[in-house]
């Protein structure tokens, strides 16, 4: 009986050992599965972080490009402002000097007796002064606009009146009452004119 017991005991022991091995195998599988889950989660987290890093790099590159473009725009605007300041710095001075030009032209348009030598010398002096003044302001970009026969342009001319006039087509300037002037292409005073209707 001892032998039978021992066989029974051996079988029970063997079954217990098998069960133990099965339990250990199951625990190992569970641990492996847990490790696999942890590894999978870690891989997913690494992928998420890589995606975030890539997006941040794109944002940084976009920000750098926008910043560079903005700086270029600011530099270009500043250059344009400086150019305009240089170009039109004389605008106020030019407007003031136009009165002197007008007065010299009026002096030349009077019906003075040019036969008299003293009046002729004065007349010639005023004429030379006007030519020199026009030449000087011309070097700085001031030019006259508005002459008889030109087509009326509301950007350059200011119409005082319209009347039918022989020898002129509609919208042609018939009389220039006061010359207009441009400074580097920009109107500083429009010409006051009469226009044919």
TrEMBL record:
Homodimer. Residues 1-14 have a biased composition (Basic and acidic residues). PROSITE patterns: GRPE. One of its GO terms (molecular function) is protein homodimerization activity. PANTHER family: GRPE PROTEIN, GRPE PROTEIN HOMOLOG, MITOCHONDRIAL. NCBIfam families: PRK14140.1, PRK14150.1. Belongs to the GrpE family. It is found in: Cytoplasm. One of its GO terms (biological process) is protein folding. The keyword Chaperone applies. The keyword Amino-acid biosynthesis does not apply. The lineage of its organism: Bacteria, Pseudomonadati, Pseudomonadota, Gammaproteobacteria, Pasteurellales. It comes from Pasteurella dagmatis ATCC 43325. Its main location: cytoplasm. One of its GO terms (cellular component) is cytosol. This is Protein GrpE. The gene is grpE. Participates actively in the response to hyperosmotic and heat shock by preventing the aggregation of stress-denatured proteins, in association with DnaK and GrpE. It is the nucleotide exchange factor for DnaK and may function as a thermosensor. Unfolded proteins bind initially to DnaJ; upon interaction with the DnaJ-bound protein, DnaK hydrolyzes its bound ATP, resulting in the formation of a stable complex. GrpE releases ADP from DnaK; ATP binding to DnaK triggers the release of the substrate protein, thus completing the reaction cycle. Pfam families: GrpE. Residues 1-34 are annotated as: Disordered.
């Amino acid at each position: 009986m001892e032998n039978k017991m021992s066989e029974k005991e051996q079988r029970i022991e063997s079954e217990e050992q098998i069960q133990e091995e099965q339990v250990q195998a199951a625990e190992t599988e569970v641990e492996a599965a847990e490790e696999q889950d942890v590894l999978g989660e870690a891989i997913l987290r690494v992928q998420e972080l890589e995606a975030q890093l890539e997006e941040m790099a794109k944002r940084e590159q976009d920000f750098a490009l926008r910043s560079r473009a903005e700086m270029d725009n600011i530099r270009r605007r500043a250059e344009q402002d400086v150019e305009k300041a240089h170009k039109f710095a004389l605008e106020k001075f030019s407007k003031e000097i136009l009165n002197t030009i007008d007065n010299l032209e009026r002096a030349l348009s009077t019906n003075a007796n040019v036969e008299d030598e003293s009046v002729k010398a004065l007349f010639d002096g005023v004429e030379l002064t006007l030519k020199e003044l026009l030449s000087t302001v011309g070097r700085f970009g001031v030019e006259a606009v508005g002459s008889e026969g030109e087509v009326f342009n509301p950007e350059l001319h200011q119409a005082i009146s319209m009347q039918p006039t022989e020898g002129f087509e509609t919208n042609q300037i018939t009389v220039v009452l006061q010359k207009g002037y441009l400074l580097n292409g920009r109107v500083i005073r429009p010409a006051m004119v009469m226009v044919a209707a």
